[in-house]
Design goal:
Blueprint (H helix, E strand, L loop, with lengths): L1 H20 L19 H11 L1 H41 L14 H10 L4 H4 L1 H11 L2 H11 L3 H13 L2 H16 L5 H19 L1 H15 L7 H18 L8 H10 L3 H26 L1 H6 L6 H6 L10 H16 L4 H17 L9 H18 L3 H9 L3 H12 L4 H10 L5 H13 L11 H8 L9 H21 L2
Length: about 500
């Protein structure tokens, strides 16, 4: 048996090596290579699917991955049930106390289900069948060229670094002090702090990048709101509000939000253009949505109470309130600024991050542990998303190019819910002869829909990774959609009524 396994292994590795050496045709092909500009939308899509069957297969796999994200909470619930049943069986089998440091027996099927229930793992999981589709319909060399040369992982790497730095104790303490100072203008209570975080935090995304703004806002909401165990309806409303506000809050400038970065250079948009056409409307929508939810849930704020005795949180080392020295906080912000400044050069911002880790080690008594696991999971999520998203241009481009101005706005909003909004604006930038009003519509629609799902905006997985522990069976995509729906409508009104 071992002999035949060895033979099969040699044959497979030889075939893969041969495929890797063979020149591979580029995939996906350039959109103009289909030579179908004169065809109708339906005929164009049928022609492209017939010309490259992998187009359709890749989109079907992407659709299955999206369905998987909606099923993830149920899979996680099943994993928790299997884990608890296994622990109960282990307790009945050996009731004696386990030695200190012993590794607990785990249920293999529960751990596998837990992995499949992690939203951050979904798109990475579905890369595996995508690679098999490449092998069947193309070859291994084509798959290698696509992943290595055609897909750019700069954004996932940047999000990992910026999220880890923004989540450090000195930066969080500084942000918390600033937002509590603003909250004191409204009385300084839980409601005022909630309103301050959801207003200032997302708008900071226009300057310190949206992933950093999402990380800071989510961590501060965790400490000042979610720790008080709000009802599920209020918890989802706040999460949806956070996602929508961060998506539109990055439009005050032309250099911080991914969907804006994709087109600012191509369309010659500067900071003045962004603020006059998008920024002030986004800020108005943020304040209006926050005010609406505040009045809607105003009675709930009075009922928020911590489940823990007051001294418990104070006794936790991670929750200590003594300030970090000013010079350490300044150094952290300098590392944050360096990462933002070198956002398009992974060699520089990853090198800076290594120096940052050394600095946190040298000042460890003023730090909390650097949160690498959530950042890496988010990076893995985004890496899988860009692999799948890079294969959707064959249908997204023609669909966007076929829409009128109002239809383009709502089409971009809806499509954003099923693909990252940066991909939507990028594909729109490839459509020839877009008028200024059409450009406005696609950008406004893309950022408006950026809070409807976890995959709609690159920073959303960061917020979910930080706050998921406050949702017993994980974040439900359906409830998230409902929580984000009203802020999305508010953003729509501001962008459509004040053109």
């Amino acid at each position: 048996m071992k002999f035949w396994v060895a033979i099969a292994w040699v044959l497979c590795t030889s075939a893969l090596a041969g495929a890797a050496e063979a020149p591979a045709a580029p995939f996906p092909p350039a959109l103009d290579s289909y030579q179908d500009r004169e065809l109708s939308l339906g005929a164009k899509l049928r022609h492209r699917a017939a010309a490259e069957p992998l187009n359709l297969v890749a989109t079907i796999i992407f659709g299955l991955a999206i369905i998987h994200t909606f099923l993830a909470p149920k899979i996680m619930h099943l994993a928790h049930r299997w884990r608890d049943e296994h622990r109960e069986r282990m307790r009945q089998r050996s009731p004696e106390q386990r030695p200190e440091g012993a590794v607990e027996d785990v249920s293999f099927k529960a751990e596998v289900a837990h992995f499949f229930g992690e939203v951050e793992a979904v798109f990475g999981i579905w890369v595996i069948p995508l690679l098999f589709a490449f092998l069947i319909l193309k070859d291994w060399g084509t798959a290698q060229v696509y992943v290595r040369d055609r897909v750019h992982f700069t954004e996932p790497m940047f999000v990992v670094v910026i999220m880890a730095i923004a989540a450090t104790r000195p930066i969080l303490l500084a942000a918390e002090r600033a937002m509590r100072s603003v909250a004191r203008l409204g009385g300084g209570g839980t409601a005022a702090t909630w309103f301050s975080i959801l207003t200032i935090g997302p708008l900071l995304g226009s300057f310190i990048t949206e992933p950093a703004a999402m990380t800071i806002s989510a961590l501060l909401l965790a400490r000042s709101f979610y720790e008080l165990r709000p009802p599920a309806r209020f918890a989802y409303a706040t999460l949806g509000l956070l996602f929508v506000n961060v998506s539109i809050g990055g439009t005050l400038t032309h250099f911080a939000a991914p969907p804006v970065l994709m087109v600012a250079g191509r369309w010659n948009w500067d900071m003045a253009h962004m603020f006059t056409h998008y920024g002030w409307k986004a800020a108005g929508a943020v304040v209006a949505s926050n005010a609406l939810y505040y009045f809607w849930f105003r009675k709930e704020f009075a009922r928020l109470r911590s489940d823990e005795p007051a001294q418990t949180a104070a006794d936790r080392w991670e929750e200590r309130k003594d300030p970090a020295p000013a010079w350490i906080t300044i150094v952290h912000f300098l590392f944050l600024a360096w990462t933002v400044f070198t956002a398009h050069n992974p060699a520089l911002f990853i090198g800076g991050f290594l120096f940052f880790l050394a600095f946190t080690s040298a000042t460890e008594h003023h730090q909390n542990p650097v949160l690498l696991r959530p950042a890496l999971l988010v990076g893995f999520f985004l890496a899988g998303l860009v692999i799948h998203g890079g294969l959707q241009a064959w249908w997204l481009g023609p669909v966007l190019g076929s829409l009128g101005e109002n239809a383009l706005f709502f089409g971009a909003t809806v499509l954003t819910a099923f693909n990252d909004n940066a991909a939507i604006t990028y594909l729109a930038s490839l459509v020839p002869n877009l008028s200024d009003s059409m450009k406005y519509a696609v950008m406004a629609g893309a950022v408006t829909g950026g809070g409807l799902t976890v995959i709609a905006n690159a920073p959303n997985p960061a917020g979910q990774a930080i706050l998921a522990k406050y949702f017993p069976d994980g974040v439900s995509p359906g409830w998230l959609f409902l929580g984000a729906f009203i802020p999305t409508v508010m953003a729509t009104l501001f962008f459509m009524l004040f053109k």
